[in-house]
TrEMBL record:
Major localization listed first in the record, in broad terms: membrane
Record membrane topology: Single-pass type II membrane protein
Similarity-based family: Belongs to the sulfotransferase 1 family.
Organism, as annotated: Naja naja
Name used for this protein in its record: Sulfotransferase
This protein's record includes keyword Transmembrane helix: yes
Taxon lineage: Eukaryota, Metazoa, Chordata, Craniata, Vertebrata
Amino acid sequence: CSTGEKEKKKKGGGESEGAGTTAQVSTGEASTQIASSVSQLCNLFASPGSLTAHYNNGVAPDSPSFISSFLNGSGTKRLPQAVIIGVKKGGTRALLEFLRVHPDVRAVGAEPHFFDRNYERGLTWYRELMPRTLDGQITMEKTPSYFVTKEAPARISSMSKDTKLIVVVRDPVTRAISDYTQTLSKKPDIPSFESLTFKNRTTGLIDTSWSAIQIGIYAKHLENWLLGERLISDPAGELGRVQDFLGLKRIITDKHFYFNKTKGFPCLKKAEGSSKPHCLGKTKGRTHPDIDQKVIQRLREFYRPFNMKFYQMTGHDFGWD
C-alpha cells in the first residue's frame, strides 16, 4: 500500500428485564456479488482519522470486526435478509446484540420502524439505513412492534418472500409487567399496574385495550404471520438454533457467555471489539414492582386459552401455565 494515498472518506459508526425464547418463521436467501477494492482498503488503513473514527465507535483496531468494518466500505447496502419482528420486552435487544458477535451478521443498531411507521418513505430509504455487507454476510434489523402491526406481514412479503423472520417470546404475564416497568421508569405518575389491568376489578374483567396486555395475546398476532425464557437459561443453545436457521456457521457458543446474577440474565464474556465483559445497558434488568398475586393469577387465567392456542400453532409447549 502506498502511504502517499490520501483518504477520500472518513468512516463513521453505525430490553430486556429478562429475555425470551426464539421462534423462527421462514418466509431463502439472496446474495450479491461484491468485489472488494484493495486500493480502497489501503487508503482506509493509511488514514489515522479513519482509524480513530472506528475506534471511537467502540470497535477495537485489533478485532476481527474492525477489519470487517473496513471491508464493508467496499460492500453493498442491501435490504435485510432476516428481521427480528418481536415481541416488545421479550429479549429482542439481547438476541440482536448476541448475534452481532457473529462476523457474518451485520445489523442496524436502532429500530428502523419501516414496516409500521415509515413505510411511505420507500425501500430506497430503508436500504440506506442498512450497513454495508460483503458476499456471505447477512443484513438484519429488529423492530418488535412489527409483530403486532397488521400491515407488516404483507409489506415484508412484498419486499421479499424469502425474508427470514425471528420472534422472541416470553411468559405474557411477566412480559406485561416488564412493559409496565419500562413505562413507569419514564412516567412515574402513571396509574398502578392493577388499575390498568382491569376494566372492572370486582368482576375481574381484563382491559384488553391496554397494549401491555394486548401484546401478550401471541396466538392472535401470530395468525397474521403464519421462545424468550430459553434465551436466559440456555443462550448458547438458542443462538445455535438461530445461526442454523440463518444459514450461518456456528461461531457463537457457550464460551461467549456468563450469567450475571445481579441483572438476572446472560452477558457476553467479551463484547465485539472489546477486552471487557459486556452486559446490556442499565435500562435492562430493572427491578419489577410488587404486584398483587391475585392480579397475577387472574392474568394467568386470562392468558391460558391464548397460550394453549399458541402452543398448538407453534408445536411447542412453553410451560407458561
